[in-house]
Specification:
Elements (H helix, E strand, L loop, with lengths): L10 E4 L5 E4 L5 E3 L3 H27 L9 E11 L2 E11 L5 H14 L1 H6 L4 E6 L1
Parallel strand pairs: 5-6
Antiparallel strand pairs: 1-2, 2-3, 4-5
């Protein structure tokens, strides 16, 4: 089986007080005068958006009807420890109207589907909480 690229996100970033980021399609156009917390906020927004799609796919694969659309609150920390920088994350997931055991199964399965979860698995500390 040959891998197929589904989408390529392209951005141009510039630093400094007048810095910013712009996607090639114009969908994203932000002023980023400070690299942080912008980087952590953008990463959290991208990861949680992807994770929601993974939750929906996990539900569809298991023939679970979602009572409402899922929500995810992402918290991305930039941490400095002994002169080294790293990230850690918390994903707070809401799946109202779903049996808690079934919802937890979807939360766990979504990490195996979401490319951001796969990319971070084993690389950063991630806590996922079903609200």
């Amino acid at each position: 089986m040959t891998a197929k690229v589904l989408f390529t996100g392209k951005t141009h970033n510039s630093g400094g007080r007048d810095g910013g980021t712009r996607s090639s399609d114009g969908f994203l156009d932000l002023k980023l005068s400070q690299p942080h917390p912008a980087a952590e906020n953008l990463f959290g927004a991208a990861w949680s958006a992807c994770y929601i799609g993974a939750l929906e796919l996990a539900a569809a694969q298991r023939k679970v009807t979602l009572a409402t659309l899922p929500t995810v609150d992402a918290e991305i920390d930039l941490v400095l420890d002994s002169g080294s920088y790293f990230l850690q994350a918390r994903l707070n997931v809401s799946l109202p109207g779903i049996d808690r055991e079934v919802a937890q199964t979807l939360v766990d399965a979504a990490h195996g589907i979401c490319p951001y979860s796969k990319a971070t698995h084993g690389n950063i500390n991630v806590e996922t909480t079903l609200l």
